[in-house]
Amino acid sequence: MSSITEVKRRRVPIGNGNGEGLYKEVLEEKTLYDFHELPEWQQDNDKILTGYIRETKSVLKCVRSLFIWNNETVNIYTHLVSAVSYFLLMLGITDLVMVPHFPTSTFTDYSVINFYLLGAFGCLMCSSCFHTFKQHSGPHSDAWSKVDYMGIIVLITCSMISLIYYGFFDHMEYFRLFTVLTLTLATACTVCVLSDKFNHKDFRPLRAGFFIAFGLSGVFPVAAGIIKFGIQGGVQRVQLKYLGLEAIFYIAGALIYGFRIPETMFPGRFDFWGHSHQIFHVLVVIASFLHLKAVMGSYIFKHSHLNGVGLAALQSTY
Ligand SMILES: [Zn+2]
């Protein structure tokens, strides 16, 4: 018997099953485990009591767990389905949405919008992989967890740069300044994420705070835009109503993740449906979609509010 997979013994009748001692013993693999049955490295959230895939030591078994209803299933599919959707948008958005609306779209428009879609796809795909393969073993879980955090950094970076571009599409010096600032913060986050200390479960609230702070650094280009173009101009350029909603969803998600709401109040009741990580995932998807709405709105604003001369000048510039 493997130390990883527990096996249950069951007696089944042989032949017509009318007994007389003719039984054979069959071994059945147990698929789901309770929190207290997990190896120590896997015991992360003691408020989720059941429904665990225990350490598999096998990539194939991790892939097979995709087809077993367990307490990671919602986490995996909320981001996998969204990742595939963003990938399809990446293939189709240029021809289906952008060109029909504004045939004057520039290569930079395509690049910026697809850059954001690529970031969203990358982040959600990294997250799906983390939740699928973290069951493998302690070292694999640690490595995939870093991949997961890197995905978040990529998404924040791509979100910020797309926002900065549309905020300052006609003032490239500001675009360069805030892009350098974003890349500097992204590098600092990457250094922290890749350190093993950061990954420890005691640092969960700190991790949540760290990503909130990086995301909120978007306040600086928005404030600069408002100072430069006035409230109306600054707000319209970056579609601030969507960005504000996006920030609320991200912050709510990070707080729910950080404080493990609601399972902390009702341990065991949200094992398969509705625990904090699942809510966090759904809020991240909604927030990422709101950012896409903002980017598309900014793109439309840029093209519909420029007169012919201005637009022609822009096209020749980029
Ligand atoms: Zn996750």
Question: How would you explain this protein's 3D organization?
Answer:
This protein has 318 residues and is mainly alpha-helical. The chain folds into two domains: 7-64, no CATH class; 70-317, Up-down Bundle (Rhopdopsin 7-helix transmembrane proteins), CATH 1.20.1070. Helix content is 65%, strand content 4%. It contains ten helices and two strands. It has helices at residues 59-64, 73-101, 107-133, 138-167, 172-193, 204-216, 219-238, 240-259, 276-304, 308-317; strands spanning 7-13, 23-29. A two-stranded antiparallel sheet has the order 1-2. Helix 2 packs parallel to helix 9 (276-304) and helix 6 (204-216) packs antiparallel against helix 8. The termini are far apart. The model has no long low-confidence stretch (mean pLDDT 87). Bound molecules: zinc ion. Residues 75, 127, 131, 277, 281 line the site of zinc ion. Its main location: membrane. Keywords: Membrane, Metal-binding, Transmembrane, Transmembrane helix, Zinc. Pfam families: HlyIII (PF03006).
Bound molecules: zinc ion
Write out the strand line-up for the largest beta sheet, numbering strands in chain order. Answer: 1-2
Q: What do we call the CATH topology of the largest domain? A: Rhopdopsin 7-helix transmembrane proteins
Distance between the termini: 65 Å
| CATH class wording of the largest domain | Mainly Alpha
What is the helix content? 55-70%
Beta-strand content bin: under 5%
Instruction: Point out poorly predicted stretches.
Output: none
